[in-house]
Design goal:
This protein is mainly alpha-helical. 73% of the residues lie in helices and 0% in strands.
């Protein structure tokens, strides 16, 4: 389990995957190695948070590109129009992505 914790696998294994790989039940492993299990789970959560942050940043960059493209085409970059073009329009619900939309519209003067 120390080797699993030290490995740089991307994405890291979940505790369930570790237990299955070792051939034991997750609860059995946890009862014998609680600290290692917590560390493995924390590593997995940290990876998930980093991925989420990166996706939000990608959405911010994409929103800026879309707003500029729409503006250059003479079309108003409304939230609805931008979301139609976005790869993942659901990310507009995040404060940072919406701020990127508003900031870019302000920069171009609309």
């Amino acid at each position: 389990m120390l080797a699993i914790l030290a490995s740089d696998n991307q994405p890291p294994l979940t505790m369930e995957e570790v237990a299955t790989g070792l051939g034991y039940n997750r609860r059995t492993i946890f009862s014998h190695f609680p600290d290692l299990c917590r560390a493995i789970s924390a590593k997995y959560r940290s990876y998930g948070k980093a991925c989420h942050t990166e996706k939000i940043q990608q959405s911010c960059r994409q929103v800026k590109q879309i707003v500029l493209k729409l503006h250059n085409q003479g079309e108003y970059p409304s939230e609805a129009r931008v979301s139609e073009i976005m790869t993942h329009p659901g990310y507009l619900r995040y404060k940072q992505v919406r701020a990127a939309l508003n900031e870019t519209r302000r920069e171009i003067g609309v």
